[in-house]
Records
---
Amino acid sequence: MSLTGTWHYRRSLASRVTLLTAIAVGVTVTVVSLASYVTVRTQSIRTLDDTLRHRAQVVSQAADLNQSQVSAVLASASDTRLIYIDLAIGKQIFVIGNRDLRAGTVEANVAARHRGYSCRTVSADGQRYRMVAVPGETRGTAIVLSQSLEPTDKMLGRLGLVALFFGLAGVILAGLAGWGVARNGLRPVRRLTEAAENIAQTEKLEPIPVDGNDEIARLATAFNAMLGSLSASRDRQRQLVADAGHELRTPLTSLRTNIELLAQAAGSDRLTAQSRAEMLDDVQAQIAELTTLIGDLVELARDEPVSAEPQSVELSEILDNAVTRVRRRAPGVRFDVEAEPWWVTGDAAALERAVTNLLDNAAKWSPEAGTVTVRLADGTLVVSDEGPGIADSDLPHVFERFYRSTESRSMPGSGLGLSIVRSVAERHGGTATAHRAASGGAELRLVVPGSARPASDDAAAAAQETGAAVSPVS
């Protein structure tokens, strides 16, 4: 960028509007004034030429060119000079005027041709004259009239001064008007700027008032919408930090207590082997709980879409892997699984995490020797348990982060598992909902869009339907 451009953009918007307005008006006034000056000057000279030519023709028709007769003809003219050219005698006769002003070759040519006329500007005795020549009555003669341009020049000079004065006045008034318009029109922009600066200094995400429905009002409305989104995001962030701190405090406190007891009892017989083993088991369980909680937090904090190169995965295979894993963690619970093939394009690891969380939740709430019913059909995974079910007041909040019902506060868990399920479902274009099962327990549903056949099979079927030939796979 040039230095001029840099200087221009370093100025305030109001000053730029004022400067550009003044320049635009100045250029316009200059062009109009110049055009007016040229037009008036041309018209004045043309009028003077026509007048001089008419008078010269009247003089040429006089039979006798004595000074008294000519003076009578030219009585209405001021500062007019007359020259009679006679080529036969090769002289210029100064009827009116002096010898300082002489005709030239142009006027002699008019006399020689004895037709047409000539007009030109000459200088003599320090003044400018307009000289017009017309043929005389006799061939080889010409009547030359000249008149001083001093009145015309004075009139044009006054016109130029008036144009300059009004032009400067117009530029000044345009600058003042531009400044006023810029100040008044940019008031919403200044208010928006002050609000943004105040937010940057105080971090108070308060909306600004919106007046009218013009572009500035739309900008203010969009700015308020952005503030609302920022405020909601900050509230969610604060809530996440507060909830995470609360959830991490309990296992960390228990873990620190057990480690301190083990450290104090080291080298002494105050703890039996059984008590020491129980404490170590508690420590391992708390470490596992912390690991799970941190993994859940990381999963939720990612908040990123599916990979740019998603994979085609079979949801029933993911379900089989998840059931196998959960069965090992809950050997006292029976799993009744029926699954149909369902192909999904997405993140296999995230989908397996979501399915595992659904099964873990059902196993946690199932009674001893209870049955968890799992059905997968047409992209809908339904997991039902035989537990106490979900209260109607808790149904809308089941998938919220860190939400735990009154009955679940005494049970292990962070309240993040089901929120991860909803997050994964939304990232894959699906949904996650909670209901009451017919058996009285909880029924959780995960719906993920996909197809009953792989993408390659769908392409082959489409080609067959349209009559296209499908090449066999070698």
Note: The domain at 215-299 is CATH 1.10.287.130 (Helix Hairpins).
---
Amino acid sequence: MNFTHFPKIELHLHLDCSLSYKVVQQLDPSISPETYQESFIAPPKCIDLADYIRRAIKGVELMQTEQQLRLVTLDLFEQLQADHVIYAEIRFAPLQHLKQGLNPRQVVQIVNDAVEQGIRATGIEAGIILCTLRHYSQQQSLETVHLVEEFKGSRVVGFDIAADEAGFPIGAHIAAFDYAKEKGIACTAHAGEAKGAESVWETLHHFHPSRIGHGVRSAENPALLEFLKHKGIHLEVCPTSNIQTNVYPSITSHTVDTLYKTGISLSINTDARTISDTTLAQEYELLHKIFSWQESHFLQCNLYAIEAAFTTEAVKSRLREKMYAGILSAKQQ
């Protein structure tokens, strides 16, 4: 089964972790293929999540000017088009891109405009999720969520918290998520990756997101699984990334198949296309090979993703039509 032409939805995708060698060469011609491999791509096994995240540093360094941000965003659209993605939510932390004089509002505007350009060029539907980071202060988290509110009606569609969940508690970010809830801002939150089921429980209790980034360790707690299913909380699962960050020793021990069989809403995502050196087609191939997933599994996951997407019902309806038409087309390839 060849999944290259299968239509795909991607909800969990970090912009600063997905720079192709092509765009890195444009931004800094001195970076050799060897340096790119070493600095931008993680090994099959990292020490932990913090070790994995270190591979994003070089990408962020190359995303500090208007031109750099625009080129990186458009490069990602090229990657998505090659992977037959029909809808993507692209996330990044705007406060990481201020080192050469841009202010946070300018950063968001630049990426928003580039996403608009990418949509026009490729026909891919897309939204932007703004991230706060675990090590940020309460003020930085509030500043980020205020940007989501300010850009309401643009391509900015939601709010997230990312980075090292095991290293930093949630206290500094409760105010920002309370604000998001008050303003009706769509939220997702990284949890159940570097920490176990208790991380998902506290995230749900304090942040009230409709989606969980990763969330795979929810499988450790039957009561939590029941809660997720009952509340319709969507899990953004990123299999290869979870193996690299040592959540699981190997793909055969990953919980994705177990989670799917419970009937929980989940999607398959790359997380970081460059750091994990993967595409959605490769993720699908992996699950097909290891867990014997078929077309029906991936269709269901993509339908779950459409339902959980931070977009309008009109767009969701259009995406479902594209999904079924794309599957028919893929069968004829």
Note: Strands lie at 8-14, 85-92, 125-133, 156-162, 188-191, 211-214, 234-237, 266-268.
---
Amino acid sequence: MNNKYYTHETSIIDQGAQIGSGSKVWHFSHVMGSAKIGENCILGQNVFVGNKVKIGNNVKIQNNVSVYEGVVCEDDVFLGPSMVFTNVINPRSRVERKHEFKPTLVKKGASVGANATILCGVTLGDYCFIGAGAVVTKNVLPFALMVGVPAKQTGWVSRAGVVLKDDLVCPETGEKYKLTGDFLELADNE
């Protein structure tokens, strides 16, 4: 046990990895040497965090998720069980393409559902919600609800993750949102 963060005895933390205070790394997980993980994060069972990956604070990575080189997750991100990131757009076993990794950015507060797939080179906007099993092939707007294969926007969600109705008021928090063109943002809440 480390006095800043917890690691299960079966996890592997390579020398040089940076893990913030209050974080927990559970069974059979592996964090590579140049990975940076923020404070109060949870890495579930069998999580892999590759070199040069950056994970913000308060990020929850559920069981069986691999976060490959090229991925950046900002604060408060949720990655559901067995969701998948890619980092090469056209992988071949016989062709090494490590120099072709495409960056993927998961913005603050975004949630990715179980078994979803995120193709490399996309940005998931702040507080967006990717439904279980969705396949994201292009950038996602902030607060967008995305479902299906390929993923399509079916609505908007609040910062609390609640689907918004036409009035654009979160029924859970009372926060109000406004739509400007195709862009949803938090309205001035009083």
Note: The radius of gyration is 17 Å.
